[in-house]
Amino acid sequence: DVTEIEEKEAQAKQEEQIMKEQELSNLLHEKRYLRALGLAISLDRPHTVLMVVKAILKETDGRKHLEENIVRLRKDQKEAVLTFLVTWNTNSRNCHEAQAVIETLLKHEAPDSLLQYSGIKSAVESLLPYT
Prior knowledge:
Helix content is 78%, strand content 0%. By secondary structure, it is mainly alpha-helical. Helix 4 crosses helix 6. The model has no long low-confidence stretch (mean pLDDT 92).
């Protein structure tokens, strides 16, 4: 009978999730946005990533800070943000944040580099009608 082992594993995962949520909350409170972005992306939380982007943009020189943080993300994290912003761009409440991230990616990534992103073709096709 492995029921007890499975329950312990599920509880451990839940506890780890709670710890990450608390860490994310602390990072946002401390305005450590790069780590917050990375953690929200690793948790696969598009809405949380959006909230971090909004928090960055509310700061003085928000666009500049957004650029600094987006540029420092790893390629896989940028790909995840790209998939998230396709959804954000379809909503008028979030389209400005999506456009700010798109602008940053287009400014700082070479076209050849962008073409290497997984899902770039479908992302561009989805972004065109709303952009």
